Amino acid sequence: MRLLNYAYTAYVTLLLFTVLLCNRTSTGNSDPPIHIHLTWQHSDMSNTITITWQTAFSDSGNTVLYDNVSRSGDPALYRYSASGKCHTYPGASGYIHEVELTGLKPGLTYYFICGGNGGYSEERCFRTIPVNFSHLRFAVGGDCRGNWSQRDIMFRAMSEFNPDFILLVGDFVTSGNNQTQWDSFFESLHENLVGSNGFTIPIIPCLGNHEENATNYYGQFALPGNEQWYSLDIGETVHIVVLNSEANPSEEQLQWLENDLKTHENYTWKFAMFHRPPFSSSKHGCWTEGRQYWCPLFDKYHVDIVFSGHDHNYERTKPINWTASKTSPQPSYSRGTMYIVSAGLGAPLYESGTEWWTAYSRSVYHFVIVGIFANKTLNLQAKNASGATFDKVLQKTPVIPEFQPPIFLSAMMATTTLLSILLRKHSKRTACRFQKNLQTKTLKEGENY
């Protein structure tokens, strides 16, 4: 009898599962994508993009349908499609789908839906990064951790400025192994990182200490290389280096950094980002290993700005060349690097401080907006939760002339003056004879032409 009961229970369970599965696939809309976010898996930011989302089932679809005109979410109307793959990991709340779009045109708006058998998302759009831009804008921030309501406020405020992309400098959650916290974070990206222009805003993340190097991080972001340190390019103008301050800063990572910066040393603008700040006057202070291993390379290849988080406040340094001086700043940003601590997206604020390198510091929820212009100028603004600016700086790339006209002209003028003095010492007769001989010589040379 007990055996019959077991058999009956197994039969009913199988029947219910079959009904649910059939219902899910037949309706085609019971498992639509959630947690949609955009990243890059390769260095080319202008011709590629990767779309990532989550579903409850593995067979809900790995397809992106897209076009350069809106199709209002009708799957039958999109002219282009791309397929990807899905995976899961221990502790995940579903299946992660990744699809990379390649061969895109720079500076063009694309509309897309993602999904498949389980249903498609609503139509979203993004704009590829232009190579020859007149104005490029990106945002920077970090350390939202467990203050979800403040995080959402900050994400919405950042998005109002319609950045082309956002640098997130780590500590997105309080515990990297807690999937519930990750679900909240990615839901916030899905809902709030949409600009007032309607574009879904791509992100460039790096690991913080609260990510705990967890599988959850690697499982939900699609990034280049080993996903710990990598770099991205916009044409041959902007180069972005992403590093992992939670790993060994020397050996393999240091060698990679030197090779990367050397390869891109002629780029107009070079930026680096990682979690722990080499220069901070707040609670945690300076990350000395970063100063020891990485700052000399930032000096050598003149990285323009280094962005970090970790100390929950805002701080901008004066121009620093750590190789040239460990006690005083440089006279201008053309002679040194600007270091920014931007850790004000929601985590509990720390008291700000002041050191010899400090240009401005403040304990406030904030983010940073950076604008780059075709005339080789950069405008950096720190903004509070309401979008008001409380710190700003204008930076220009240095122009080094091929020669120094003032020195050359000065030498010529000095020589001419000396010759005039010597001539005045001769008699009028001698001067006339000199002029006559000079004229005769000139005429004879002219005859040979």
Overview of this protein structure:
The protein has helices spanning 2-27, 148-159, 179-192, 215-220, 251-263, 288-293, 295-300, 405-424, 428-447, and strands at residues 34-39, 49-55, 63-67, 80-83, 85-87, 95-101, 109-116, 119-120, 124-127, 135-141, 165-168, 203-205, 230-234, 238-242, 269-273, 305-308, 314-317, 338-342, 358-362, 366-373, 377-384, 389-396. 27% of the residues lie in helices and 26% in strands. Helix 2 runs parallel beside helix 3 (179-192). It contains nine helices and 22 strands. Among the domains are: 132-396, 4-Layer Sandwich (Purple Acid Phosphatase, chain A, domain 2), CATH 3.60.21.10; 406-443. The strands form four sheets. Strands 13-14-15-16-18-17-19 form a seven-stranded mixed sheet, with helices on one face. A six-stranded mixed sheet has the order 12-11-10-20-21-22, with no helix packed on it. Strands 3, 4, 7, 8 and 9 form a five-stranded antiparallel sheet that branches. It is of the alpha+beta class and 449 residues long. The radius of gyration is 30 Å and the shape is globular.
Protein traits:
449 residues; alpha+beta; Purple Acid Phosphatase, chain A, domain 2; seven-stranded mixed beta sheet; six-stranded mixed beta sheet; 9 helices; 22 strands; globular; disordered C terminus
